[in-house]
Specification:
Number of helices: 20
Largest sheet: 3 strands, mixed
Number of strands: 3
CATH architecture of the largest domain: Orthogonal Bundle
Distance between the termini: 68 Å
Strand content: under 5%
CATH class of the largest domain: Mainly Alpha
CATH topology of the largest domain: Neurolysin, domain 3
Strand order of the largest sheet: 1-3-2
Helix content: 55-70%
Number of domains: 2
Radius of gyration: 22 Å
Order of helices and strands: HHHHHHHHHEEEHHHHHHHHHHH
Structural class: mainly alpha
Length: 496
């Protein structure tokens, strides 16, 4: 077999893996957005079967033979990235036994329904047995995946943020925490009257405005759709990228900013290089980079004073009794600093503290330093220590996130990494686009989205996550731009 024939065979195989992975993604989307409750058992079997097929594809013994036959020097940068990523994926897949991968898929598919029911009932005890089984399976998977240089938790983090380790994340979080706690403390000392939104806002009007905002952020609805779920998410890629949101008639910001957040994810997937479709190099760089796109759209753009100038008349047009009197009131209301329970509703200062809590708890769970039976008490104690208030209900505490029921251990730290990357990217974007604030104020976001497409979306996985950000910003990413942005913004808002 020639080098070219081997490379062609490898890409054909990668295409099949990607297609099957997208089918698995559609099953997950349907489970949360459309599937009737009684479909959970059947979906668990379907997810297990799909996982088994995917595992067989990913561990096909022809993969190392094709890679060995390929002359890497004959390939361009995309080809070399494909080779690197296929080798990485093969190595990781072969370290996980097929029956373990299948059982994890089955157990987490069932676990979602158990979590949702426990959350609705506010009864942690009904979820803990299932969570214990999931944690044991994930611990087993982590041990299989870990190399000699990795801890079990490192191996899980590496799935979502290649190259990152628990220690490197803990170090950057420690520096970030110091700055956040200092800023939070200075804000707490100020008595500032911040507008609070009141009233009732019909669901249909919220959804209409949410759809409009998605399109303002360049989301192509001909290549996607927007549905309602308990916990918003984005699913799919390129021509079929689906986002979800939720509605609370007393809080339209929940719907609008969840939608903008998921739109950030969606435009990343829609903006990937079509020339690299179905190839490993054509996918997103990491979940941290993915999260940078959603957080930049939601926060640096969506919660900016300039965007509030655009959003305020839109709120007035969609809600006849909109309770805020000016764009400035809107800006101050959506940036109110408060010690809330819910991660997804947290202000920009407290959000990362929510992530740090989850990072430290799940790291302890995987390492065996914390047992599932003690998780709720540990969560509640840590939350009260970090946020100064007791958890009032499990829905506002350990049951609020879907991730652990889905087996997504190692995923949470990518949210805070995404904020750090977003701080870097927004600083670079401001330098590159002199009319940025005017464009945001007018609700014309094509140019900033095109900047993201050129610097983040189309490069896909050609480079490592940190190198992707470094190339866009000109230096290795740090927490400094994020802290500078937060201090400048909230310093002005709270007259610090």
């Amino acid at each position: 077999m020639t080098s070219q024939d081997a490379y062609t065979a490898l890409l054909d195989h990668a295409r099949q893996i990607e297609a099957l992975g997208q089918v698995a993604g559609l099953l997950s989307w349907d489970q949360e957005a459309m599937m009737p409750p009684n479909g959970a058992e059947a979906r668990a079997e379907q997810a297990g079967a799909m996982s088994s097929v995917l595992h067989a594809k990913r561990t096909d013994l022809r993969i190392p033979e094709w890679i060995a036959a390929i002359d890497a020097n004959s390939l361009d940068s995309a080809g070399r990235a494909n080779l690197r990523l296929m080798q990485r994926n093969y190595d990781r897949a072969t370290r996980t036994p097929a029956d373990l991968a299948t059982e994890i898929a089955r157990k987490t598919a069932r676990g979602h329904g158990v979590w949702a029911d426990a959350r609705a009932r506010g009864d942690v005890s009904t979820f803990l047995p299932t969570l214990s089984e999931i944690v044991e399976l994930v611990r087993e998977q982590a041990v299989c995946l870990a190399t000699d240089e990795q801890s079990a938790y490192d191996a899980l983090v590496d799935i979502y943020e290649p190259g990152a380790t628990a220690d490197s994340i803990a170090a950057i979080f420690a520096r970030l925490r110091t700055g956040l706690v200092d800023l939070r403390g200075r804000i707490a000392e100020k008595a500032v009257d911040v507008p609070v939104l009141t009233g009732t806002y019909p669901a249909e009007a919220q959804r209409a405005l949410a759809n409009k905002l998605a399109e303002v952020f360049e989301y192509d609805l001909k290549a996607g759709r927007i549905d309602l779920v308990v916990h918003p998410f984005c699913s799919g890629t390129r021509g079929d990228v689906r986002i979800t949101t939720r509605v609370d008639e007393g809080d339209p910001f929940n719907c609008l900013y969840s939608t903008v957040h998921e739109t950030g994810h969606a435009i990343y997937e829609q903006g990937l290089d079509p020339a690299l479709a179905w190839q490993p190099a054509g996918g997103h760089a990491s979940m941290g980079v993915h999260e940078s796109q959603s957080r930049l759209c939601e926060n640096q753009i969506g919660r900016s004073q300039a965007f509030c100038t655009y959003l305020f008349p839109q709120m007035q047009a969609h809600f006849s009794d909109f309770a805020l009197g000016s764009a400035d009131d809107l800006y101050r209301a959506i940036n109110r600093v408060h010690e809330g329970y819910i991660r997804t509703e947290a202000d920009e200062i407290h959000y990362n503290l929510h992530i740090m809590l989850r990072f430290e708890l799940e790291r302890a769970l995987i390492c065996g330093d914390l047992q599932v039976v003690d998780l709720e008490n540990e969560w509640n104690a840590r939350f009260e220590a970090d946020f100064g208030r007791a958890v009032d209900h499990p829905e506002n505490g350990v049951l609020q996130d879907v991730h652990w029921s889905a087996g997504l251990f190692g995923y949470f730290p990518t949210y805070a990494l995404g904020n750090i990357y977003a701080g870097e990217l927004f600083a670079a974007m401001q330098n590159a686009l002199p009319d940025l604030q005017d464009d945001i104020r007018d609700g014309k976001l094509r140019e900033p989205v095109e900047w993201l497409r050129a610097n983040i979306h189309r490069p896909g996985s050609l480079e490592s996550p940190s190198d992707t950000i470094a190339r866009a910003c000109g230096h290795k990413p740090t927490e400094a731009p994020l802290l500078d942005y937060l201090n400048l913004k909230f310093g002005a808002l709270y007259d610090l």
